[in-house]
Amino acid sequence: MDISSAADFQQSLSSHFEGIGAEVGLVDGSVSIISPMRESPAEKAGLLPNDAILEIDGESIEGWSVNEAVALIRGEGGTEVTLTIQRSGNSEPFDVSIVRDTIEVESVRSDTFEHDGALIGRLEITSFSEDVGTQFDQLLQELEAEGIDGLIVDVRGNPGGYLDGAQKIGNLLIPEGKPVVQIEHGNGEIESYNSSMEDKKPYPIVGLINGSSASASEILAAALKESGGYDLVGETTFGKGTVQKSIPMSDGSALKITTDRWLTADGNTIDKEGVEPTIEQSQPDYFYSIALSVEDGFERDQVSEQIGHAQNMLNGLGYDTGRNDGYFDEQTEEAIIEFQEFHDLQADGQLNGETAEKLQEDILTHIRDLENDEQLNRAIELVVEQGSE
Asked: Which domains are present in the chain?
C-alpha cells in the first residue's frame, strides 16, 4: 500500500473515517462489496455482500487492485460517488449513487428488550476496531448490573477488523479455557488461543449472524457455537478465513500480506464457506431489495427487475401487489396508486422517480423498525425459551 492507501487503511480501523462505509475486497477476482456497515451510506443505498463493482463514476475498474478502487470510492463527506454494480441473479448491471459521509465507528452498541417477563440484553458489534474489547467489556458489565436474564451477541453486517478484538471478546464469553480461535501458520504449525474465562455465564447466550458477517465476526460466531455450545440464529456468514498483517514502512507506506489461516475451535476452516447458523432465519423479502433505479419510469404491462424490487417493497409495506416477478399488472398499479394517495403524490399508478424515492425511504424506515427484524425477534424468543428451561 502506498502512503495514501496505508493511511486510509489505518483510518478505516480507527474511530472515524470519510467514505461510504463498506468493507471492499476481491471476490472471484472482482473488486466487490464484502460487507456494508450498519446504518452507513452503503447500507442505506442497498449494497449487499458479493456485489461486484464494475465502474466507479463511469470509469471501468477491470484489473484494478482493491486499494486502487478504495482510493477512488473514498472522499470528502457530502460528495457523491456512483458505483456500477453487478449482482448475482440480476441480468443487467445497475448504478447506485451514494453520498459519502463521516463514518463514526461506534464498535459496540447495547440495548435491552423485555419479553415474557425476562430482560434480554443485546450487544451489537459493528466493527472490530482498536478498542472493541474494552467497549464490549464495559457495556456487558452495565447490562449485567441491570440484571439481564439472557444475552444476544449481534455481529450481523460486521465486516471484521482486528483479530485480537475477537479474542478479547471471546475471553469474556467462552468458558473453561476452551479455544476462541486456532491459527494455522504458513509452516503448518497450529496455535490455539484459549479463553482465560473460567465459569460459564449464568444466563443463556445466542449469536446473531448474516451474510455480511465476515472475518473477526466469524471467529467470534464460530467460538460461540463450537466452544460455548451456544446457538447462532440467522444466515450463513460471508466466509473469510484468512489473516492479514500490515507491516508499516519508514516512509509511511505499508505492506499488507496474508500470513495465516484461522480455524474454528474444532479445527474447521470456514474460508469461502462461512459459519452456518444452528437455527436458520431469513428476513422478509423486502430486506434484500436493492436500491431502486428509475429513470423513465414504469407502467402497466412492462416487465423489469426494478418492478420486482418495487413489488417486494410494496408488499412489505402492506400494499399487496399479489406478485414480485417484475410484471406490472393491474393489481401492482392499484397498489402504487394506494401508496401515492397515502403520500399525497400524483396518483397516476406509474412507478416514477418521485414514487420510487418515497418507496425507498419508507422501506428503509420499515427495515430499521426492530419489530420487523425477524432474526432479532427469533433470537429473543430463543433466549427466553432457554432461560426458562
From this structure: 3-104 (2.30.42.10), 108-283 (3.90.226.10), 289-368 (1.10.101.10)
